[in-house]
Each structure stands twice: as structure tokens, then as C-alpha cells.
Amino acid sequence: MKTLLALALLLLNSPALIAAQSPTATDSGIRDSIKKKVDEELNLIKQAISKRAYLGTISSKSDATLTLTTTGNATRTITVTTDSIIKLTGGKDGTIADLKEGTTVLAMGDADAEGKLTAKRLLVVPTPRADKRRAIFTNITKVTTSQLTVTDNKNQTLTIKLTSATKYTGQILPAGRQAKASDVKVNSKIVVVGTESATANTLTARLIHLVQSP
């Protein structure tokens, strides 16, 4: 009996039997290869999806999609789901039905590699004002107490309006003093920083920097 028991234990612990009951090296290699491939695919998916935010005006809409024209004049597609949170002016909750063409929104969510965004939050925000500031380097052709006539680098004639708020900078040589309004004369070269007005080719000067006096 003891001899049979010893023989049984010897057989159970034999290398051949253990190898037969254990996964083969080939099986282990296949599992490792599959796991590696799955990890690679998951990494590609993660890389293709990124957090984004777009600010723009709704140019068109459907039941679940908005098309935005961004402040950079790019077109973006926004997908709205049942999980998307929409906040209207004043923080009120809304739905996609409340979002009209021409409304400015901030869309935040996950964007794919093509830039298409699935919205997590959509906020209705005030439409930003267009920046009408402009800076030009120019030559003065006419001077009055209230305005300058100048020619820009495209040979266009512009009117520069002067106000009590207009600042003057630049040094007058050889005196070395700060420039003032009376130093701005015909044929002076200046840099004008101002805002465009409703009248075509007209700027209201905020700052005039005298580069060279005649």
C-alpha cells in the first residue's frame, strides 16, 4: 500500500504531468500578443479623443447637431446628446430647442481626430464685440486741428480723427523732449493706433507715435 501511494505521488509530481496540465509557452505567447494588441487599440482611441472647447455662433442646427462658426472663422460640428448640459443666459437650464441660429455658445466636450465635438456642456454667452482696433505706419499729407489725412502702405487715403483723449509719443530731436500735437506736421511719419469708425477709411486715434518729423 505504501509502495502504491509513493508511486502515485511520484507520478503526480512528475515534470511530464505538470507540463501537460500547465498552459504551453505557445498559449501564453498568444495571450500576451492579444493583450498587447488590445492595449495598443485602447491607446489609439484615447489619443484620438481629446478635451476641447469651441466658442462660436450657431450657423445651422438639426435635432442633435449644431454647426458653429468659431471666432477664428472655422466651422465645427457639435453633437448634442441626452447627457449634454445646456445652460441659457442667466444660468437657466435649456434644451437644444432653445438654441437658435445666430446664438453664441461655448461648447465643451470630447473632440475626435477630425475636431468633431460631443458636447458635455453648452453655455449661451454674449456675442463678443469685433476688435476694431488698428495700427498703421503712415505719412501725413494734410493736418487740421481735428483730423489728419494720411496715405497708408497700400496708397489708400485715410482720415485720422483727433480727440482730447489722443496721446502723443516719440522724441523730438535734438531737443530730446516728448512729442506733442503741434509736432505732427505734413510729411511727418507716424504710427497711429486707433479704432475704426462707421465711416469708411476713418480711424479715431488713441495714440500717435511720431517716428520722424519733416
Task: Provide the descriptors you would attach to this structure in a database record.
214 residues; alpha+beta; OB fold (Dihydrolipoamide Acetyltransferase, E2P); 3 helices; 42% strand; disordered N terminus; DUF5666 domain-containing protein; signal
Write up what this structure looks like.
This is DUF5666 domain-containing protein. It comes from Candidatus Amesbacteria bacterium RIFCSPLOWO2_01_FULL_48_25. With 214 residues, the chain is of the alpha+beta class. It has two domains: 51-124, OB fold (Dihydrolipoamide Acetyltransferase, E2P) (Beta Barrel); 133-212, OB fold (Dihydrolipoamide Acetyltransferase, E2P), CATH 2.40.50. Helix content is 20%, strand content 42%. The protein has helices at residues 2-12, 15-21, 25-48; strands spanning 50-61, 65-70, 75-79, 85-87, 104-111, 117-124, 133-143, 147-151, 157-161, 167-169, 171-172, 177-178, 189-196, 202-212. The strands form three sheets. The chain has a five-stranded mixed β-barrel with strand order 1-2-3-6-5. A five-stranded mixed barrel has the order 7-8-9-14-13. It has a two-stranded antiparallel sheet with strand order 11-12.
Question: Quick gist of this model?
Answer:
By secondary structure, this protein is an alpha+beta fold.
CATH superfamily of the largest domain: Copper binding periplasmic protein CusF
Residues in helix, %? 10-25%
Shape: elongated
CATH class of the largest domain: Mainly Beta
Beta-strand share of residues = 35-45%
Which structural category do the helix and sheet elements fall into?
A: alpha+beta
Whole-number mean pLDDT: 81
Major sheet summary line: 5 strands, mixed, barrel
Using the coordinates shown, work out and report the CATH topology of the largest domain. OB fold (Dihydrolipoamide Acetyltransferase, E2P)
The count of strands amounts to: 14
Give the helix tally.
3
**If classified by CATH, what would the architecture of the largest domain be?**
Beta Barrel
> Cα distance, first to last residue?
124 Å
- How many structural domains in the coordinates? 2
Radius of gyration: 36 Å
